[in-house]
Specification:
Helices cover 43% and strands 15% of the residues. The protein is of the alpha/beta class and 413 residues long. The protein has two domains: 146 residues, Aspartate Aminotransferase, domain 1; 239 residues, Type I PLP-dependent aspartate aminotransferase-like (Major domain) (Aspartate Aminotransferase, domain 2, 3-Layer(aba) Sandwich), CATH 3.40.640. Bound molecules: pyridoxal-5'-phosphate. Pyridoxal-5'-phosphate binds next to helix 5.
Amino acid sequence: MAKDIIADHARWPRLEDEIFKVNKECKEAIKAKGRDKVIDSTLGTLIDDDGNLIAFDSVYDTLKDMDKKSIAGYGAIEGNEAYLDLLIDNCFGSYKPDAYIKAVATAGGTGAIRHSIWTFLNQGDYVICPNWYWPAYHTMCEEFDREFKTYEFLDEDFNFNLEEFTNTLDFALEKRDRVLCVFNTPANNPTGFSINDAMWDRILDVIRKRAVSGKFICILLDVAYIEFAGDGSQKKFFQKFSSLPENIITTIAYSMSKSYTAYGIRAGACIIISSNEDIANRAFDSMKHSNRSIWSNITHAGMNILVDIESDEKKKKSYEDELIANRRLIEKRASAFVESAKEVGLIHLPYFGGFFISIPCENPKEVAEKLKEKDMYIVANKNGLRFAVCAVSEEKCKISPKLIKEAIDKVNK
Ligand SMILES: Cc1ncc(COP(=O)(O)O)c(C=O)c1O
């Protein structure tokens, strides 16, 4: 007899979101002491120097001018054609792979990650992922009954740890016939690390060698932060996903959340890359089926924003100007942090772009607690601290490394 009204596969403890928890405490501290006194390194959204969420004018003026009927009406289940075409061009820039490319609209990048895990893995197959990762990957594996296995992200010289990746890939393929390798690059969350083009050649070499008959490998590129990772050349690596063997499929989790400051709009896409047209089409069919079963279709306004901006030279120019200005803002903040870290001898993982810099340390939770005494609120994960350059002013970025170093030394003395 059943013992619980919640079905076996759906029984989970309450999800405590650590990030929102520290953010709440931080807000209380700001209320009590004033914004100037507090360093808020909690949320992963772009925040200006006065503590306000940045929402691009180019994006929200476009939304204000939108015909209400095109906001209210349903979009196509797979996503509107103009949206998907423009999104593909926008994602790849000048570096579109030579392959069959299809895309399905998803609720943010999250939806694309979900679709990739669902479409290319059976229950019990492995998602393999570096050990500095966005926790939702793990949550999704739990939800869909896929295994989640991490490996040491960087080697002693702070390069991508090819050996650990290879061992983990071998482990997964020894156990099962399918594997999904997730790479959150460029500008990884939580580290800001990007895998360089030469390393990509080596990674793809390893994957190609393992793609023997009967084995299926999905490479998932989560590029949520790509527009904050350089001026265009960071997209060069996409070309390497041309002409891969048919049993390797690449998917890209494309997100409008960061690049259009549209976190709450929930628009994105799963871009499918295959050297076989039939496989690309069948992956598309599978994901369209998933769309129908989960959210039917995504926010029409989100799709319209991208189409309106990307198909109008003037709007596109305003959008790009805003994007560049904000990328510079983050770059300046990150440089201030990195320079000060060097001065005080604080070790952090290599930062190449994006919203965060990570500081490896022992007892990160205790260190984060200690930092609250200095009015710094920061997210602790398993391996260290996540400093949010997207949210902290340049001035505060300058003073933060010293505070972090002192707290680490005190806790781990
Ligand atoms: C690494 C990473 N991937 C994907 C996402 C998904 O973003 P969204 O679903 O809002 O597009 C996020 C959001 O924080 C992220 O940090």
